[in-house]
Design a protein that fits this description.
The complex is a heterodimer. By secondary structure, chain A is mostly beta strands. In chain A, about 10% of the residues lie in helices and about 35% in strands. Classes of the chains: A mainly beta, B alpha/beta. Chains A and B meet through strand 5 of A and strand 4 and helix 3 of B.
Amino acid sequence: MLITINGKARSFDFQQCNVTDLVTHLALVGKRLAIERNGEIIPRSQFSETFIHDGDKLEIVGAVGGG
Amino acid sequence: MSDFLKIADKTYHSRLLVGTGKYQDFAQTRAAIDASGAQIITVAIRRTNIGQTAGEPSLLDYLPPEEFTYLPNTAGCYSADDAVRTLRLARELLDGHKLVKLEVLGDPNTLYPNMIETIAAAKTLVKDGFDVMVYCSDDPIIAKQLEEIGCVAVMPLASLIGSGMGILNPWNLQIIIENAKIPVLVDAGVGTASDAAIAMELGCQGVLMNTAIAAARDPVLMASAMKKAVESGREAYLAGRMPKKLYSASPSSPTTGLIA
């Protein structure tokens, strides 16, 4: 499965994967994040029922220092 | 004295809002913010670093959202669409948080705001239920339009972002303040404590700054200076200054009882 995360293409072995699995796989568990898939925000409450598909474009963001 | 800053039905005792960027490290960020007494702090929304070491500290560890009012901003956005998208992500990130800082830039050299895109984004965000504090040019007409759109605060620049040039057009700020029914805060351009005091003496409801503190030789000490400047400027505004006179015909000491 080939997906684009934060502008970078990445290939994954798994056939099926929900957002919770992906967050675990990327070692982002416990971090405060917001995720957008193909321009649509995925609410955190729907991570486990939202499945990632080949070709999806994901943005994973967090809060950083800024003015 | 019960003098509070009120934004979108919430009150704050501190009128100094600070950014969290450009510090040496998170510990210094925290120390400076503590010294500033700020309750509202701005944060940027950026792509998460994938593959970073697990357990690496984040800004949120040092500045827990339970302790401060986060003001996610759209710094770095050059279009209304990007700004709206960024703040929707911020709302999800911060569990439905509504208070945001909108800024849409027009030029990477000056970071001057693009007010046409800013107005478009403000309309969308207000409709979408956000409480929008908006960074803007110091044009009184634009400031009024942003108020009419439904923004909860207008934040004209004192001078360009990060320039430290101070308050370049106090007259325009004064017109904006006189016309506004919502809080006016100076955002950007403050360089040192006297600039913050001047903004408050003009009648601003607050001041937002980042670089003036973070780029000082001693950021924590400057944060403390800014806290005092904002407080003293506010008190001077409330006290009502004496009128300026080229000559004074009223000496402070008695005119009688002189020895000769």
